[in-house]
Design goal:
8-stranded parallel barrel, 2 domains, alpha/beta, 386 residues, TIM Barrel, single chain
């Protein structure tokens, strides 16, 4: 593997941060963008790699790639509509570490040929699919890095649900990139849980007042979950505060049981909380606690996506304590959602001790069982995200 592939294969969710002045779907994004300045900002913010549009339809040129190369040692992806050996040679000479190959515009023989040429030039490739048929072709061609674009390049419509279904189908031995339509931490997390190793983000960053700061925000962890929501006004308070996940307890015995999963905005993820086994709901994820006699729920739970465990929820015993809870959670492997007694006054210390993938609070944010104190919700999310 080359530098581009190596960077994307690292643990955790990475990002390919994109430099483009305009988009055919959105028009001008940042017409006066200086690729050298933005590339340096992306690298400082933690980008695994940087994508540079070199096509004039996006306001790009090969000089943009050269400027980015002069400004950073981060792996660079040349992004355009490439179909010839000469274009790949130009990409290499301009400083690219990888080149984009669009399955929509190339037949299998062309893709296989261009992958071989790229390898001979020392370039990695990102082979991009937009639908199931294209993805099957990319898998069959043994492309090591596969991207799934949520944007239909004919209509420019975004379909994140279809994208995530395709991402989840890609074999585990490939590097998987979710492209387009990522504007929030929760949307990035949704791609991560579906199996993406990285997200490619362009328009969201180029529209931001500070593209580097926006990238740092999208990649920051832990995610913040507000659980035990029962009312629309409480969901709105969690949204306004900046929470990433909204939890709804669908266990009638719970003092904060919800009648159903309430609607959440597109940039947030909903979580249905169960005991024993998951039922049917409209939630994006299920949180299933173990059963414990005499208790509303068992202590630990699995976070599931389409029935597959994607994280562990480490909680306190129901109405109990454990002085070693944080230390035990800190030693756990994989994605950890830390729950149990968290609130504005202690979540910062908990994050510093455990370094969890997400934090989860419910009863400590209430004015009464099932009723959220909006000021506590705001302070908890603010501290956790700081």
């Amino acid at each position: 593997m080359g530098r581009f592939n190596d960077a994307l294969a690292r643990p955790g969710l990475g990002a390919i941060a994109e430099i483009k002045r305009r988009s055919p779907s959105a028009g001008d994004l940042r017409p006066d963008a200086d690729p050298a300045v933005i590339a340096a900002a992306y690298a400082a913010a933690g980008a695994a790699a940087i994508s540079v549009l070199v096509d004039e339809r996006f306001g790009g040129t090969w000089d943009d790639l050269r400027a980015a190369r002069a400004a950073t040692i981060a792996p660079l992806l040349a992004k355009g509509f490439f179909s010839t050996d000469e274009q790949l040679e130009t990409a290499r000479d301009a400083g690219a570490d990888a080149a984009l190959l669009l399955l929509r515009d190339l037949d299998d023989a062309q893709v296989a040929h261009l992958m071989r040429v790229s390898a001979s030039l020392g370039l990695d490739t990102l082979v991009e699919a937009h639908d199931a048929e294209e993805l099957d072709r990319g898998i069959a061609l043994s492309a090591p890095v596969l991207g799934v674009n949520a944007r239909d390049l004919s209509t420019f419509a975004i379909d994140r649900r279809a994208q995530l279904e395709l991402v989840a189908r890609i074999p585990a031995d490939r590097i998987v990139i979710a492209e387009s339509g990522i504007a929030t931490r929760a949307q990035g997390a949704a791609a991560e849980l579906a199996g993406a190793d990285a997200v490619l983000v362009g328009s969201t960053l180029m529209r931001a007042a500070d593209p580097g700061a926006k990238l740092r925000e999208l990649l920051s962890r832990p995610l913040v979950k507000v659980c035990g929501l029962t009312r629309e006004e409480d969901v709105a308070a969690a949204v306004e505060a900046g929470a990433d996940l909204a939890g709804f307890v669908l266990v009638p015995e719970s003092p904060r049981a919800a009648a159903a999963v309430l609607p959440v905005p597109e940039g947030m993820l909903s979580v249905a909380v169960w005991v024993g086994e998951a039922g049917d709901s409209s939630a994006d994820l299920d949180q299933v606690h173990t059963i414990e006699d005499g208790k509303v729920r068992g202590r630990e739970a699995a976070l599931l996506r389409d029935g597959v465990e994607v994280a562990r929820v480490l909680d306190l015993p129901w109405e109990g304590t454990d002085p070693k809870h944080w230390q035990t959670a800190a030693a756990a492997k994989g994605r950890v959602v830390l729950a149990g007694g968290l609130g504005p006054e202690n979540v910062r210390e908990a994050i510093a001790t455990v370094r969890p993938w997400a934090v989860d609070a419910a009863s400590s944010l209430e004015s009464a069982p099932g009723i959220k104190d909006h000021d506590k919700v705001r302070r908890y999310v603010e501290v956790a995200r700081s």
